[in-house]
Amino acid sequence: MKHFSQKDIDTLSKIYRLNLINSATGYKSAQLVGSVSSEGNENLAVFSSIVHLGSNPALIGMILRPTTVPRHTYANMKATGVFTLNAIHESQIEDAHHTSASYPESISEFDKTQLKVERKKNFLAPFVKDSPIQMACKYLNEYHIKENDTLLIVGSIEDLYVKDSILLEDGWIQLDLGGIVTINGLDGYAIPKLQERFPYARPKDE
Amino acid sequence: MKHFSQKDIDTLSKIYRLNLINSATGYKSAQLVGSVSSEGNENLAVFSSIVHLGSNPALIGMILRPTTVPRHTYANMKATGVFTLNAIHESQIEDAHHTSASYPESISEFDKTQLKVERKKNFLAPFVKDSPIQMACKYLNEYHIKENDTLLIVGSIEDLYVKDSILLEDGWIQLDLGGIVTINGLDGYAIPKLQERFPYARPKDE
Fold first, then answer.
1. Is residue B204 a part of any domain in this protein?
2. Residues forming a β-bridge with B189
């Protein structure tokens, strides 16, 4: 195996280190985050840092670095208090990745890609049409992580929309039936196939 | 699409809600966390809540609920200050899932599964043999998330070991070459195949 000590990592070139450390923790969720500014400018940005925080209440977390791209998402969610999460379908990966390009605040990524806005009820932030799982979220709080000056954003799930064909009887969403992708590092998109689902694990008697 | 309002979610049965909300945020990283108590009892537990926090310095985050299983991992990392992260290979999923069974603190999950301990240098916590990516981590800090009484643990990567055949020239780890799995919800294990890797996204001129 190739070994990197902490000192090795610290002295790698920036791009090599970004690639290595971003892929070392394994597969990440792939979400398009929809938001809107107080002036009505819509924004869409790909994120791989959305995490499950808890189911009761239903909460999500998001890690972001407020001083770098995609800063519009953060400014918008602070200004309006809301955002959407949209799972990425395998047919959307090229457009999803393109939302990471640095556009001025007045340019909507919906106008620069084939991704289409979908509106639901009176929710202020835009959803992504044809995304198999969509969530309307409310910004609740943020925690400053002093070790590297990032933020953990805490959001609540206000509304959840799931494609009927991927929602099983017990509430489990079979993600591969929806063609939902996962992210490898900064720029790799992979398509998983379910291998096995296990029952609740109980200790073995011996 | 099936719609769940926040009120719907709050009134679902516990199991249905756990399945639904745990799978709604998409694919999660799959890691075996190795730790050891001050008495020398080894512990291994599957986690799907490890996130990339930053690459410079190289930091990881982990969400956990200290009052429920797997509490041994938390107690051990607090007591010794160290733990390991081990990517799960597709041949290890059954044993990996079994580490979620509730064993007493004196029982090592290494003795209840086919997973084997690997020791590296003088690092106190055990690694998982044949895991394609292994990390020696140091506990740095924790943040209490008051919205649902969980913790964000912040850890540093002290040593990183990567199987040679999956490490590309630019530092990117191609996870599917290593047979590394991802988690769908609480109990589903999926195997991704890389679809595409994109160049750095730049704005389109128009």
1. no
2. A196, B183
Please give the structure tokens belonging to residue A86: 């949209």
Q: How many CA atoms lie less than 13 Å away from B109 in the CB half-sphere?
A: 28
The 10s digit of each residue's pLDDT in A55-65 is 999 999 999 98
- Residue B202 covered by a domain: no
Task: Write down the ipTM of this complex.
Answer: 0.96
Task: Work out the percent of chain B whose per-residue pLDDT is above 90.
Answer: 88
CATH number at A90 reads 2.30.110.10
A60/B94 touch (CB, cutoff 8 Å), yes or no: no
Residues 114 to 153 of B: which have CB under 8 A from any A CB? 133-135, 140-141, 143, 145-148, 150, 152
**What does each C-alpha distance from A1 to A15, A22, A40, A166 come to in angstroms?**
21, 18, 51, 39
Say yes or no for a CB contact (<8 Å) between A14 and B56.
yes
Q: How many domains does chain B have?
A: 1
Contact between residue A202 and residue B101 where contact means Cβ atoms under 8 Å apart: yes
pLDDT at residue A68 is higher than 70: no
Residue B20 lies in a domain: no
Can you give the residue range of the structural domain that contains B74? 27-190
Structure tokens at A74: 């953060």
Question: Which of B27, B49, B101 is facing A192, going by the closest CB pair?
Answer: B27
pTM confidence score:
0.96
- Provide the CA A174 distance to its chain's centre, in angstroms: 18
Flag whether A195 is in a domain.
no
What are the pLDDT digits (tens) for A90-137? 999 999 999 998 888 889 999 999 999 999 989 999 999 999 999 999
- Residue A63 CA to residue A47 CA, distance in Å, equals 9
